[in-house]
Amino acid sequence: MSLETSSILPRQNLTFSAASLTVLIAFGASALPVPLMSTWTREFGLSTAAIGMTVLLYVVGNACSLLFFARLSEVIGRRGAVFVSLLFGLAACAFFLAADSPAFLMAGRLLQGLACGITTTAAMSWCVDSAPPQRSWLATAVSSSGPLAGFVIATIGAGIAIETQIASTRGLFFSVLVLELLVSGLVFLASETVTTKSTKKGILKPSVMPPPGYGRRLALAATGFVGTSALTCFFQGFSARVAEGLWGVDAPIAILSGLVYISLVLPNALGAFAAAKFPPLKVFAPVGLLYVVTGCGTFLSVAWRLPELFIAFALVCGATQGALTAASFKMLLEGSRIMERARLLAALYLISYMGTCIPNIVIMLFGKSAGLDAIAYGFVLWFALTLAALLYFLRAVKTERAMKEVLANEERREEAREASDAGRP
């Protein structure tokens, strides 16, 4: 099965570009705090708990958007919902520009989470709706790796800008504000793909139940997303701390924290693009196993203070992470219809963010006692649980598909027998 895309759409390339750029800018903006966290820690005296709170509020914002605005793009259209996400992004920039205490940073992260949550359901669905029919795999590649590509661009740019003093933290967020205004112009010119709006009332009612028949597929996809996004979320808030542990506090932490994050995220995007063309169920087992092995190596390298080994493991782990998320995304949306996608993505990402909260909440609860060694060994356990769940749900999905194939074959044989009986004299 393949993703259903619009075969005839006015300004199709412009629409796909607008949707893709929305994903890039929303998640790119949410990555800016990664290299800036060390600067804010010195400026505002952020504690480990405060850093964890910024991460958690970003996740909470995402979860609230996915829970309460899942159907927004079905009611007001993809364009209208994307405009709402851009407004949240602009408001977040305003808080970061005016920041003079940790409370402003936390408010900005919450608003970024709200923006990214709506972007997940509306802009990613818009990507799938408007992808060129001849290259429908682009929808999977952009939607699954677009956020990470935005992370890479923002992290590299911000790290270099701060260390070389090309721009201040406020200058960076002013640049994001301008870019979001420009993307808003492209969105205004793009075509709407939801031509039949939902007439159901109660947009703010939680509505993320998947359509019938997607239960096992959602469980498998969510396992892939939860198991991998926990790493991305952790390194968003703690890349600077990991860099200090690996290279020492006297090293150029802003650049090195960007290097830590990019080592995981850059190959992630490449792995997602590579895996988008392959049958997803054939990708899960080998890639999942390699992901768990290299993930354990990544965190053990942190515990043992081996920066070179950390970079090597993180590069491979990032590629397998991207391949696993792309396979999860593609498998879930195979054969989906336009009015099903927003709910499917909302359910997938809501489960993902809820699962992602677990390690960060544990870190916050332990506070100062949660050293790098304890965090590293905790993530080794996380990887073991991820692999077990992944193999369990993969078997369930394959069994379900095998049963459907058996039933379909029996129906075809029955139809053939009926046709043969009808043809007898």
TrEMBL record:
Cellular localisation: Cell membrane
Membrane topology of the entry: Multi-pass membrane protein
Superkingdom as given in the UniProt entry: Bacteria
InterPro entries per the UniProt record, alphabetical: MFS, MFS_dom, MFS_trans_sf, MFS_Transporters
An MF annotation (GO) of this entry: transmembrane transporter activity
Protein name: MFS transporter
Keyword Metal-binding on entry: no
Transmembrane segments: 47-69, 81-98, 110-128, 137-160, 172-191, 218-239, 251-276, 283-304, 310-333, 345-368, 374-394
Domain spans labelled Major facilitator superfamily (MFS) profile: 14-401
Predominant location: membrane
Keywords: Cell membrane, Membrane, Transmembrane, Transmembrane helix, Transport
PROSITE patterns: MFS
Keyword Membrane: yes
One annotated Gene Ontology cellular component of this protein: plasma membrane
